[in-house]
């Protein structure tokens, strides 16, 4: 034995092997480890591998957070009468849970039966219609294609095309060309194919399931396409569509997690009670109480209050960023509802709730109530507004009944009034600028827009996107336009009646480059258009007071000077055709008249003479002479001096408005250069000129971006711009640039190259030169001032401007900022902003009191003396007032279109201390005497108490001036 190793063995004691015991402590530790490992594994599985599935399950669990609509603020008239408010609505909603999903078709079948039995309808704007199957989008025609593409993309049709055309690619990977291919493929998918695809996508064949045994149904499910065929053959398409509407709504809402969908809105309380009673038998169905916008007077002041609507697809992202629920929230689309959206909208609330297995609320766990929007008080008097609207409707109906009746060609009733379908009336407080009434006809029932499905496609299109094909043909026939022998210079004599109808129809309602019919001559009555603030019309004779102001203030005529009506006004131009109506109708004369009599009789000859004297005083043909009327018109808000940045080209009203301009030198230059340029285009295309220049080969210099090459288009643009510039220039004509452009155009255009001789080019230049000279002569002509002096020519103003003009005339010369909003209050009625005492003055006219008094007396003669043009309307009216009738030609050949002159009227009352001013315009009304009837009805409402005090038996024009609330 080795001593060293023996020693080691002796020194190192051997360990005794012991058997380990499995204690309870060990078991607990192992168990805990296993439990924690399982939990961690489950968490990883839930949060990493299957996050989307369990997120959806969590969303459909027992605890939910729902968003509640906020009531919009009210809109009141000046006396606190409600024009827009909210009422408690009952909505039928469906919540998808495992149970409601399983019983969907049986549940919805019962729901449809109850709705039908109680006269309720589905709440939907689903654009896929049936019988025949087609798309109908409630959008303007130019948005239809975009809307159809959006519809198909939202329902996955683009993904199907992607898989077929670009297999293996994802949508974000596609370039612009490939995306275009997707869109082109989507465009050719017909509505019938979409309908059939959605039947399959939503398993709508299950509608028939209860008609078959389980075994039969399993067999049928083996061939889905045949099953869809069977469904389409045996179930009415409209019934299939109803199920599709609900399923599609669920699908579209599913992207937002937990969200019940609305099946029917604004249920009658009795219907809501029925569903409350049977909801235990209908999984997923419940009744929701929520505010619904309500307009007690329906159409009243629809152009002021405005309508609301769902958020358009193209703007949903924008509104989502601003905190809107784009699936449920409504926004203001016009009028006050639109302009004050941020004030009226309120703030949505949230409610944390516990729900049962059917998705119904069991209890509230926590709540943040919705905050109502702030409310708005308007300056409008709803009774005055009613009177204005009713009077317009009655007067226009009366005029249409008269229609083409002509008592005698030498009377004032010799025009066709059968198209008197549009009108406006504006009433202003002359001392504050408050707008008391702002009527536009036709109007819209605002309640049509508050609930999906209430505004059907036909009504929508009649308001926003009319079928001009159908309307236009009916218009041509109704107005017997096919009897015309000419339209816009086109000879129709040798055409058959059918050919005439076709030519006239296409002239009135031509197709644009997109194949959409256009209302070229503004014939269709547009209910959504605010005629009171946006229609710019020639004022006619109601402008004559302005001419009188200018003449008196410039001392070219005195208040007592009499001017003799000598028939045609040929003092400066022998070929000028202007004359008084007395001469035009009877070949008579008004005789010697001063300014008051001229206003009373609406004597054109008198105002031509005033205009001529202004022209002469300013320096014949000069800018100053041709601005003589404009500089006074601008003071009264009839246009604005564009050279003065301090001028405000607006009335100040809070809703959208247009702003018409008076004739003045620069506007005349722009207008005439445009007219003569287009006239020159026709001359050159036909090889003619405004004077004899000899024969030359025709040429087309009209720039056409689609037909011309880029180079030729640029040359034509340069040429036409040079021509317009020469027309408006006061310097001697320099045709060198024009000559060079013509030669380059001929050289660069393959069609013209080598085809034109020097003689042709000289003829073209002479034709252009003659048109330039004509334009320059016309621009400087006193005829511009003559036409403007009687409210014709290029003068165009809105009814709102015209009322402001009269208010400024009679209130001492202060042009107030016009306004509709009086104050804004919170939900407790506390005033946040008060505009009632602002009375902002835009400018003062500084016209003398003597001049104003002379004008007022002339206007008073219009309504109170037998010779006055409004005497027949006001002869027995107890409130002394002043006014002026007008008749403004739409176009020289207006009869060819079935159109006639605008009927205009302006007035004020009472005479001594004016309180209100009014303007009335009836499109295609013919004579201002008819519009005066509207003014009288408004006065009767405004001065009602005063009238009845003096005569309790007074007979009012409007038998029922107040309309009942809906």
From TrEMBL:
Membrane topology type: Single-pass membrane protein
Record keywords: Cell membrane, Cell shape, Cell wall biogenesis/degradation, Membrane, Peptidoglycan synthesis, Transmembrane, Transmembrane helix
Residues in Penicillin-binding protein transpeptidase domain copies: 423-655, 787-939
InterPro entries named among the record's database cross-references: Beta-lactam/transpept, Beta-lactam/transpept-like, PBP_dimer, PBP_dimer_sf, PCN-bd_Tpept
Coarse class of the protein's main subcellular location: membrane
Single GO BP term: peptidoglycan biosynthetic process
Sequence intervals crossing the membrane: 25-45
Intracellular or extracellular location(s): Cell membrane; Membrane
Residue ranges of every copy of the Penicillin-binding protein dimerisation domain listed in the record: 69-364
Molecular functions per Gene Ontology: penicillin binding; peptidoglycan L,D-transpeptidase activity
Top-rank taxon: Bacteria
Pfam families: PBP_dimer, Transpeptidase
Keyword Cell membrane part of the UniProt annotation: yes
GO cellular component: plasma membrane
Assigned protein family: Belongs to the transpeptidase family.
Protein name: Penicillin-binding protein
Species this chain originates from: Oceanirhabdus seepicola
């Amino acid at each position: 034995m080795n001593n060293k190793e023996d020693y080691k063995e002796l020194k190192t004691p051997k360990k005794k092997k012991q058997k380990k015991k499995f204690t309870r402590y060990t078991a607990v530790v192992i168990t805990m480890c296993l439990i924690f490992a399982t939990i961690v594994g489950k968490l990883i599985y839930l949060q990493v591998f299957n996050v989307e599935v369990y997120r959806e399950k969590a969303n459909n669990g027992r605890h939910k957070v729902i968003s509640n609509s906020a009531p919009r603020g009210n809109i009141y008239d000046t006396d606190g009468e409600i024009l827009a408010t909210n009422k408690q609505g009952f909505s039928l909603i469906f919540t998808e849970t495992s149970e409601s999903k399983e019983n969907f078709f049986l549940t919805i079948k019962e729901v449809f039966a109850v709705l039908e039995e109680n006269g309720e309808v589905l709440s939907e704007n689903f654009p896929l219609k049936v019988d025949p199957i087609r798309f109908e989008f409630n959008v303007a025609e130019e948005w239809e294609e975009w809307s159809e593409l959006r519809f198909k993309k939202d329902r996955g049709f683009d993904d199907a095309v992607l898989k077929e055309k670009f297999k293996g690619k994802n949508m974000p990977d596609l370039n612009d060309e490939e995306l275009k291919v997707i869109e082109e493929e989507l465009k050719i998918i017909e509505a019938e194919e979409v309908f059939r695809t959605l039947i399959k996508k939503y398993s709508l064949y299950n509608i028939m399931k209860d008609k078959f045994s389980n075994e039969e149904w399993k067999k049928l499910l083996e061939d889905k396409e045949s099953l869809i065929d069977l469904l389409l053959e045996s179930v009415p398409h409209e019934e299939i569509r109803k199920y599709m509407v609900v399923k599609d709504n669920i699908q579209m809402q599913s992207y937002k997690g937990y969200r019940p969908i609305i099946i029917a809105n604004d249920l009658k309380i009795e219907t809501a009670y029925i569903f409350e009673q049977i909801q235990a038998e209908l999984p997923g169905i419940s009744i929701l109480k929520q505010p619904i916008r309500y307009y007690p007077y329906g159409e009243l002041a629809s152009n002021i209050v405005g309508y609301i609507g769902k958020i358009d697809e193209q703007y949903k992202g924008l509104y989502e960023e601003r905190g809107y629920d784009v699936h449920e929230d409504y926004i203001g689309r016009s009028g006050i509802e639109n302009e004050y959206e941020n004030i009226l909208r309120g703030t949505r609330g949230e409610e944390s709730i516990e729900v049962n297995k059917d998705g119904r609320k069991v209890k509230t766990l926590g709540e943040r109530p919705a905050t109502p929007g702030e409310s708005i008080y308007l300056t409008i008097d709803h009774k005055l507004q009613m009177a204005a609207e009713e009077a317009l409707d009655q007067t226009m109906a009366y005029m249409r009944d008269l229609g083409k009746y002509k008592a005698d060609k030498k009377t004032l009733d010799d025009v066709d009034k059968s198209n008197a379908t549009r009108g406006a009336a504006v009433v202003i407080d002359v001392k504050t600028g408050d707008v008391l009434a702002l009527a536009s006809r036709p109007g819209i029932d605002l309640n049509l827009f508050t609930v999906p499905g209430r505004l059907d496609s036909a009504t929508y299109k009649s308001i926003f996107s009319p079928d001009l094909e159908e309307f236009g043909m009916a218009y041509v026939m109704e107005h017997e336009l096919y009897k015309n022998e000419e339209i816009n210079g086109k000879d129709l004599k040798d055409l058959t009646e059918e050919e005439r109808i076709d030519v006239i129809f296409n002239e009135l309602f031509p197709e644009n480059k997109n194949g959409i019919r256009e209302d070229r001559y503004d014939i269709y009555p547009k209910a959504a258009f605010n005629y009171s603030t946006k229609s710019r019309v020639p004022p006619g004779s109601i402008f004559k007071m302005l001419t009188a102001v200018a003449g008196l203030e410039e001392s070219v005529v005195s208040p007592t000077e009499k001017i003799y009506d000598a028939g045609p006004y040929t003092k400066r131009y022998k070929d000028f055709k202007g004359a008084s109506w007395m001469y035009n109708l009877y070949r008579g004369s008004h005789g010697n008249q001063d300014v008051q009599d001229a206003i009373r009789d609406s004597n054109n000859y008198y105002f031509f003479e005033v205009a001529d004297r202004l022209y002469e005083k300013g320096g014949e043909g000069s800018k100053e002479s041709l601005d003589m009327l404009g500089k006074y018109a601008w003071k009264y808000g009839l246009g604005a001096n564009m050279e003065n940045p301090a001028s405000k080209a607006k009335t100040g009203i809070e809703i959208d408005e247009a702003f018409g301009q008076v004739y003045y030198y620069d506007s005349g230059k722009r207008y005439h250069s445009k007219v003569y340029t287009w006239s020159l285009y026709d001359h050159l295309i036909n090889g003619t000129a405004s004077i004899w220049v000899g024969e030359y080969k025709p040429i087309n210099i009209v720039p056409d971006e689609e037909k011309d090459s880029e180079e030729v288009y640029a040359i034509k643009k340069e040429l036409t711009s040079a021509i317009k510039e020469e027309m408006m220039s006061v310097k001697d004509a320099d045709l060198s640039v024009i000559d060079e452009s013509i030669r380059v155009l001929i050289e660069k255009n393959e069609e013209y190259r080598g085809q034109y001789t020097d003689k042709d080019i000289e003829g073209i230049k002479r034709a252009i030169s003659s048109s330039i000279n004509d334009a320059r002569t016309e621009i400087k002509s006193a005829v511009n001032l003559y036409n403007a002096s009687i409210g014709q020519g290029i003068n165009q103003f809105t009814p709102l401007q015209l009322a402001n003009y009269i208010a400024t005339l009679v209130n001492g010369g202060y042009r107030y900022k016009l306004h509709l909003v009086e104050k804004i209050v919170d939900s407790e009625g506390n005033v946040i902003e008060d505009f009632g005492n602002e009375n902002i003055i835009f400018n003062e006219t500084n016209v003398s009191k003597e001049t104003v008094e002379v004008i007022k007396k002339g206007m008073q003669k219009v309504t109170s003396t037998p010779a006055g043009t409004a005497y027949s309307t006001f002869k027995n009216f107890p409130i002394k007032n002043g006014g002026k009738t007008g008749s403004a030609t739409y176009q020289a050949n207006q009869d060819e279109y079935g159109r006639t002159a605008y009927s205009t009227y302006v007035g004020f009352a009472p005479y001594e201390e004016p309180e209100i001013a009014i303007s009335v315009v009836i499109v295609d009304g013919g004579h201002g005497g008819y519009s005066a009837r509207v003014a009288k009805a408004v006065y009767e409402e405004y001065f009602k108490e005063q009238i009845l005090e003096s005569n309790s038996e007074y007979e009012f024009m409007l038998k029922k001036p107040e309309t009942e609330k809906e």
